[in-house]
Design goal:
single chain, 180 residues, mainly beta, elongated
Length: 180
């Protein structure tokens, strides 16, 4: 059921993006590229909750304005999941990181307020000496936010998943952007 509810949520976000195109919120410059650098903090979800307490990250995002209210995005970054202490041993669980690479869409439904959906892949970096995990995960994200000419403040849910394994985060992103 969890997969079905997440699929419904992503479908709802995508539908909201595509069915609100009649609103003319002119926040994105048509035919222009922008780039933003952001800091992110959040709480883990899924199986990540079992061994981690919170998440810190950073990301870079390219955005191309298709119209004055609709943009396509390319994002990459990294998240560090900080470990909890194992109550049975008194030792900390291992920390790890996720490196996502995503493409997506962003629609400004009213001036300065947007909904966004992204999808891509994420690679897991385990605490030493384990190194890179021998697999990648699919990555789906959806969010809402406020953006002006330079600042972007958004809240989103991101899910890293593979068969029968879901981890992720609910995050707050504060970014500064500029035109290219």
């Amino acid at each position: 059921m969890k997969v079905l509810s997440k699929l419904i949520a992503v479908s709802f976000a995508a539908s909201a993006i595509f069915f609100t195109t009649t609103v003319k919120a002119q926040t994105v410059a048509a035919n222009k590229f922008t780039f933003s650098l952001g800091a992110e903090t959040g709480i883990p979800t899924g199986v990540s909750r079992l061994g981690t307490t919170f998440v810190l990250g950073a990301s870079g995002k390219f955005q191309y304005g298709v119209t004055n209210s609709f943009a396509v995005t390319f994002a990459a970054g990294g998240y560090h999941f900080f470990p909890k202490t194992d109550p049975s041993t008194g030792k900390k669980y291992g920390s790890y990181g996720e490196i996502p690479v995503k493409i997506g869409v962003k629609e400004f439904v009213i001036p300065n307020f947007y909904v966004a959906a992204e999808g891509g892949l994420a690679w897991e970096k385990l605490e030493s000496p384990h190194g890179w995990a021998p697999f990648h995960r699919r990555d789906l994200a959806g969010g809402i936010g406020y953006a002006d000419k330079h600042w972007d403040l958004g809240v989103r849910y991101e899910d890293f998943y593979m068969k029968d394994y879901h981890s992720g985060l609910v995050a707050l992103r504060l970014a500064y952007g500029f035109g290219l």
